[in-house]
């Protein structure tokens, strides 16, 4: 009887990748670099508070 790890390995080998992983990783790094250059996107600053208000709190308030 095969071990659980061997069964999982055999199952994982059946996965077909339709994406070039190197190209996808490079694209991800470019995206993260862009976010890093625009700290307002993730810092706890006014942009984040405005987005929370606009997309989370305002619809909730309007639905009451």
Can you offer a commentary on this structure?
- This protein has 64 residues and is mainly α.
- The chain has one domain (4-63).
- The protein contains three helices and no strands.
Order of helix and strand elements from N to C terminus? HHH
Kindly state the percentage of residues in helix: 55-70%
Rg from alpha-carbon coordinates: 21 Å
Mean pLDDT: 84
Structural class determined from secondary elements: mainly alpha
Unreliable parts: none
Treating each run of at least 4 consecutive H or I residues as one helix, how many helices? Answer: 3
Report how far the terminal alpha carbons are from each other. Answer: 59 Å
Could you give a quick summary of the protein structure above?
The protein has 64 residues and is mostly helical. The chain has 3 helices and no strands. It has helices at residues 4-12, 21-37, 46-63.
Topology diagram in text:
Layout: H1 4-12, H2 21-37, H3 46-63
Provide key terms for this protein:
64 residues, mainly alpha, 3 helices
